[in-house]
Structures are given as C-alpha cells and as structure tokens.
Amino acid sequence: MTSLCEVCGGNEFRFEAVLWDELVEAWGLSQEERKYIDRQQGECCSNCGANLRSIALAGSIRSHLGMSHWLKDEMGHRRWRKLKILELNEAGTLSPLLSQQAGHVLGCYPEVDMQAMDFPDESFDLVVHSDTLEHVPDPVKALSECHRVLRPGGACCFTIPIIIGRLSRRRDGLPPSWHGEPGTSQDDWSVQTEYGADAWCQVLEAGFSKVTLTSVAFPCAVAMAAVR
Length: 228
Ligand SMILES: [Zn+2]
Prior knowledge:
- With about 230 residues, the chain is of the alpha/beta class.
- It has a domain at about 75-225: 3-Layer(aba) Sandwich (Rossmann fold).
- The chain is about 25% helix and about 20% strand.
- The chain contains seven helices and ten strands.
- The chain has a six-stranded mixed β-sheet with strand order 4-3-5-6-10-9. A two-stranded antiparallel ribbon has the order 1-2. A two-stranded antiparallel sheet has the order 7-8.
- It is globular.
- The relative contact order is 0.17.
- Bound molecules: zinc ion (ZN).
- Zinc ion binds near residues 5, 45, 47 and 50.
C-alpha cells in the first residue's frame, strides 16, 4: 500500500501498467520484478499525477531539506529563495514545481552532458535527476560532476530503476535496450546500466560522503540523496 503522496499529500492512487513484453525480456525481469517496476512508473497520485518514482524523489528532497509541508506547498515559497537548484532533464511531474524556484536551472541532454558540465564548482544547493543516470555511459563521472557543482552540505537527489534482488550490470555487449515508450530507439536514451542492490556504491565512488535512501511501497520506488 502506498500511504500519502509526498508531492501533494493526496491519498488516492490509480494504476496503469507501463512495461511492455520486449523490455521485460531484455531486462530479464521476473513477474514479481515486473510488478513492482510497473507500480514505480505507473501508480500515480489521483490528485497531482505524480507516480511512485516522483513521490519517492519528492520524499528524498523534503527529507534532505527538512521541509515540513508537502513539496507543492514548499516550492516557490520565499523561505527557499536562496536555494539554487540544478535539474538535469525534466524530473517528471516535479519539474513544474522545481522551476517555480527563482534559483532553478534546467539542463537537458545533449546541451548539458552530465559527464562534463559547464557549471562552476560549488554553485548549487540541490541537484535533481530522475531515471537519467542509467542512460549515461559513465555514471560515476556524472555523479562526480554533480558532486563538484554542489556546495558542501548540498545534495544530489535522484532516482534510477533498481532491481533489488540482483547486482548492477552494464549492458555492454548485450543487445540495446530502451526505456521510455515502446519503439523508442534513439541511441542517446539506450540503457547503459541496469541497476541492482549495489547502486549506492557509485555514489560513494563519485566522492560523496553520505547517501540516504527514501522508499515508497518498497521495493517499488527508491530515491537516493547523495550528500556532499
Ligand atoms: Zn500527489
């Protein structure tokens, strides 16, 4: 059971399956794994539309910043007026909320390459990305770039699809696989890493000193806050 939506406080949810057979086969998912990844992407708050992935991410952001109200009530509030946010590719339904903040910057691939960003050192308080890292050829380099642009005490809050019962694997040498809509086959969005239970290791490899996990309806959705 999902409890409350971290974005809006809503308590009603609707579900629509989103995975398709070819992806399930390429990813080697069991029926049980298919079920929880489907919920991660396709179970949504009836009020604001956030899926469990976005809700976990909102929970991670709220927890790191110590927000007492729901994310939609906090974002745009003047108490966060000095907060500098870097959003890398639109973070689903959170994007319109994050962009209310005056110090918000949206950087999208390919203009912004996570592995080599143009932003100065220590220029953001919060870096947010959602289901992007699995598409980046060198995810540790990308996370170390997130670390570089964060101020001390700042956090990179992000999601990746995690299959909790296995270890991460590269798709090097395997047939290409894409997330997103069936039939999508742009090379830029092919999956490079399939994440497992050791996903947090890359955060520490990238130089972060602390990582906290926030889960919604475990194992459906897990978000990480990598703290500099
Ligand atoms: Zn909601």
